[in-house]
Amino acid sequence: MSIQLEYGEVSAVDYKTCRIRVRLDDRDGVQSYWLNVPQRHTQATQSRPLMPELGEQVAVLLDADGVGGVYLGGVYSTAEPPPVVDEDTDYVRFSDGTTLTYDRVAHALVTDCVGSVLVKTATTVTVEAGRPVLVVAPSVTLDTPETILTGTLQVAGQVTLASGLQAVGDIQTQGKVLDQGGNSNHHSH
Fold first, then answer.
1. 137-156 residue pLDDT tens
2. Which of 15, 64, 105, 167 has a beta carbon 3.0–4.6 Å from 2's, enabling a disulfide?
3. pLDDT tens digits, 152-189
């Protein structure tokens, strides 16, 4: 059986069966039969990455008669060059603008999502960092029945308590302690 490497443009996508058809450059634009898109896992472990897009330039392996074949992958060209040319960067940009970038020299992983991100697990989530962690957001909500801080807590802004405050140790202040009536901690009866 003779197999040929050919190039073309994706002309149809079947998402349910993970197959594509390709308009073949070397065959005067003839459209291929349905070609399988190989997957990494198809048994107990399963995966299905995003399928090739309509109009994408691709490489395929075809039988000599062009009937049977398989998709190999997308191919960059001078008309559509790679988005990153750095040899140490792995990069994915989705059609909605979300990007995933890993720079192995800088040891930096960046996820820039245009929508929301959900991390969900049935057990523990642990975040470990060798340096300070910065969270930048308009607001942060911790929706949990109990929060334990094991180190020092410093608050640069105002603190508002919706319920009572209980202290096991001493409370020290450099300013005044006033109740709603304006009475201070130095008030005597």
1. 999 999 999 999 999 999 99
2. 64
3. 999 999 988 888 888 888 888 888 877 777 666 665 65
Q: How far apart are the first and last CA of the chain?
A: 103
* 77 burial via Cβ count (<10 Å: 0-12, 13-18, 19+): exposed
The single residue listed with the structure tokens 């079947």 is 14
pTM (2 d.p.):
0.72
Torsion of CA 129, 133, 138, 144, to 10 degrees: 60
Helix (H, G, I), strand (E, B) or coil at 155: coil
Residues 6+ apart with CB under 8 A from 49: 39, 40
- Which one, of 175, 170, 135, lies nearest residue 158 by Cα? 175
Query: Could you tell me where the DSSP H helices lie in 41-178?
Result: none
- Chain centre to alpha carbon of residue 171: 44
Instruction: Give residues with Cβ within 8 angstroms of 103, minimum separation 6.
Output: 86, 88, 89
Strands 89-93 and 108-112: unpaired
Tell me if 54 sits within 8 A of 11, measured CB to CB: yes
Whole-number Å distance between alpha carbons of 2 and 29: 21
